[in-house]
Amino acid sequence: MCFRLRQVYLCRGFSCLAKSHIFPTSISSRIKTLVQQGEYRQALHLYTKHGSSPLRTSIFTFPSLLKACASLPNLDYGKTIHASVIVLGRQYDLYIASSLVNMYVKGGLLDYAVQVFDVLSENGVSSQDVTVWNSMIDGYFRFGHFKAGVDQLRRMLELGVRPDAYSLTIVVGVLCKDGNRGREGGKQIHGYMLRNSWNGDSFLETALIDMYFKFGLSTNAWRLFVGMKDKANIVIWNVMIVGFLDNGLWESSLELYTLAKSNSVKPVSTSITGALGACGQSENVDFGKQIHGDVVKMGLEHDPFVCTSLLTMYGKCSLVDEAGTIFHNIPDKGLEIWNAIIAAYANNDCGHNALELFDSMRQKNVMPDSFTLSNIITCCSMLGLYEYGKSIHAELVKRPIQSKATVESALLTMYSKSGRDNDASLVFNSMEVKDLVAWGALISGFCRNGKFTEALEIFRCMKNSESLRPDSDIMASVINACTGLEALGFGLQVHGYMMKTGLELDVFVGSSLIDLYSKCDVPEMAFEVFSGMPRKNIVAWNSMISCYSRNNLPELSIGLFHEMVDHGFFPDSVSITSVLVAISLTARLLKGKSLHGHTIRLNIPFDTHLENALIDMYMKCGFLEYAQNIFRRMLHKTLVSWNLMISGYGSHGNYLGALALFDEMKRAGEEPDDLTFLSLISACNHSGFVQEGKTRVSVNGSSTNVDPHRFVVYLRRKLQEIKITRQKFFPRKKEDGWEFLANMVDLLGRAGHLEEAYSFVRAMPVEADKSIWLCLLSASRTHHNVELGILSAENLLRIEPDRGSNYVQMINLYMEAGLREKAAETMALMKEKGLQKKPGCSWIEVRNRTRVFFSGSSYSSSMEAEVFNALNSLKCNMKKENNEDSDKMTFREVIL
């Protein structure tokens, strides 16, 4: 039925209701008052109660009734009132017609609004009235018909209808969604307002301020606010408070809240929620408590929006107990209240509390939404309650909810974190819309479970199948996958892609790149990334410091730490740990002690990694007692802590201490790993306790002879049992077991059991590497077994024919055995190949400066010459004293 036929039908239906008397003026006035107070249902009920008919209703009552219908919305009632208007012939009244257009627009019936407007235009009624034009233009824009709205605005201007402040406000609202063009258009409207002296219209000025904030032009918004003549309306203050909050200017938001109170502008619910949001974002709990006091004074403690904001603020400030108290004192708890308290617990690692509230919520028949369930699934992931999370997933399948993208992303994260990649893939494939969060959750999940190849494959699919641009979180995960695979080539490709997109400058992506280049032994590339980062946080500095330590550049690591402090960054435990590793490599005791004291003075928290680094540093600097004190005071000793101490005892020749600590470690319930046994063998090796060393690493713990086959099988089984993890203090790239075998050969060789050592090598199920032959060669030289030494040297040269130190070892062996011709031949061969042995060196730290002395070097400085002169003088004195003692003894013998 067309619109005009409906009009005829309604007119005929209502014509029989015509009466001779008019609708009482008092009732009409009462209806108007109720509508102004927002009591829309009561207004319509009053109209119906008095048996109204079209002819009894005053024309001044219709706009109020239509406004009530638009606000509810109640279009059926509105259509009935429209029929009454037609019966009275008031459909051409501009005020009533504008109300009809507004009602149909708000009710979602744009076609009805257009027909009302067209009826007016056909009769030439609306041409000069801007109010009706505003309603129609607003309708087009509200329904997304941007072009039609612009055409209507252009048509209005062509007819000579001058736009008012509300017209411009409608346009400003549309421009806020139009990017850069909208920003320029908004500035033009601002200029138009100033040229036409409309700068006193607070409604338009408020819209412009809101527009500037949405475009991130906070300074423009502030200037416009300062220039406003009338600031008595709380709405403008609310826009300023929320605008600064949305732009991350939390302090300015709180200053505006304080300024509003000092200007006697009474805050309302929106003001409170905006200010509490700023407190939560900035974690300014003191200011938040002051606002909480204002809430109580104004009687808003039961306002649902204010309560939700209070709970969120206390949650973000980690005051969950206060949030819980507020929650339990709220008499009428809506869904938003439940969501706020559950989110507060979930975000503060109080997953059990969140789950208890969720059960209570369901008992009270409060239906959860997507926000509730995403937080609950996150708690399941946090607590490892994957079966519970899966049961919630089952409920979701039975009862689909709206806006489930966040829930699906939470499910993806949970399944990925639990290692259930198949379930994660099923959730991902079932998603209708795969946003960045979903792709990121799947990629990071594969990375977390060590499935780096799968993570990179998902990234390729994302780039090929979607128009989405990866964000910094996704790129950081992709780089971590490259790092895990040590795929430097693909990492370079990813780096190039990021340079094109500008993501390289992101501090988190940059830190991941530094870590990639660090682990791929390319520190110069890591430094280029670090230097190109415009904003460096503590994570970036720590990554670069650790990079230099990892790549055996300790001096650069130490220097960068001082540079970081000079730039005003406060070091954390990670910074201290990385620098301590560098100090350990250089054995600079004074620097290490200074850093230890610096850490105590600054109250930097001592975590396990930092304490382990201190133990390692003091051990390598020769201060066993300091390391012991730190170890004994540790609240939580990890396997790394025990290994460091056992290794330290062994390197200091304290064999009994190493074994005693090993026994203590077993009593403490700590399972040893390969490094533990390696340290024990080394301790026995340095102390010469051969039998004890063999016993400690035997399969049954009591055998005196070690079978290499059984030993290797034992080692492999142990590695599988304890799932060995590489520790940064002992980065090793050899196959598991090689270091044990080499140490066993060295252990037997040092003790002179050369035949047993060689038998051990021959019985090995794998071919011996260079380290094993070098140990056997060194033992052969020590115990003058020329035949075995030559055999070891030949195997060593076969494996590494271009290493100068191997030739030197063989030359020394020939010389010690008196085979000078063989030594000369080997030396000639070495010179022919142009090989040299790197000289040994020693160093000493004097006045915070390290002095290095190379074997066979000439005096490179006056200080070195002075040192050697002093040494020669001491040697002469010692010889002189020895000769005198010898002469005296002979004289006594003669006397006696």
How would you sum up this structure in a few lines?
This protein is an all-alpha fold and 896 residues long. Among the domains are: 1-127, no CATH class; 333-433, Serine Threonine Protein Phosphatase 5, Tetratricopeptide repeat; 858-895.
Descriptive labels:
Serine Threonine Protein Phosphatase 5, Tetratricopeptide repeat, two-stranded antiparallel sheet, 1% strand
Please describe what this structure looks like.
Among the domains are: 1-127, no CATH class; 333-433, Alpha Horseshoe (Serine Threonine Protein Phosphatase 5, Tetratricopeptide repeat); 858-895. 71% of the residues lie in helices and 1% in strands. The protein contains 49 helices and two strands. A two-stranded antiparallel ribbon has the order 1-2. Helix 15 (250-262) runs antiparallel to helix 16, helix 26 (436-448) packs parallel to helix 28 and helix 46 (786-799) runs antiparallel to helix 47. The longest helix is centred in the last third of the chain and has 34 residues, at 862-895.
